[in-house]
């Protein structure tokens, strides 16, 4: 199971705040930091890693198919041009 980065950050900061500040102020500041970080994260439109990786794989697959189709089209156009030239010569 992967630890939430926000939780890890707050676990690191909280003891430092508890040591440096009075308890009430440290708690209030910790809650303020957490709420502000949550606000920023909501604005970022983040997606879970597994969804990102699935979309990344799909895009890679589609890019490969497009390259393959472009090669086939170039071959067909080359054959078509050769055929047209042969007809013009007759």
Question: What does this protein structure show overall?
Answer:
The chain is an all-alpha fold. It folds into 2 domains: 1-46; 47-90. It contains 3 helices and no strands. It is rod-shaped and about 95 Å long. The chain starts with a helix and ends with a helix. 0% of the residues are buried. The mean pLDDT is 85.
Write the layout of secondary structure elements.
Elements: H1 5-20, H2 23-43, H3 49-89
Biggest beta sheet summary: none
Q: What is the gyration radius calculated from CA atoms?
A: 29 Å
Mean pLDDT: 85
- The backbone outline, from C-alpha atoms, is rod-shaped
* Helix fraction bin: over 70%
- Structural class estimated from helices and strands: mainly alpha
Distance between the termini: 73 Å
Number of domains: 2
Instruction: Give me the number of helical elements.
Output: 3
Order of helix and strand elements from N to C terminus:
HHH
Report the portion of residues in β strands: under 5%
| Number of DSSP strand runs | 0
Low-confidence stretches: none
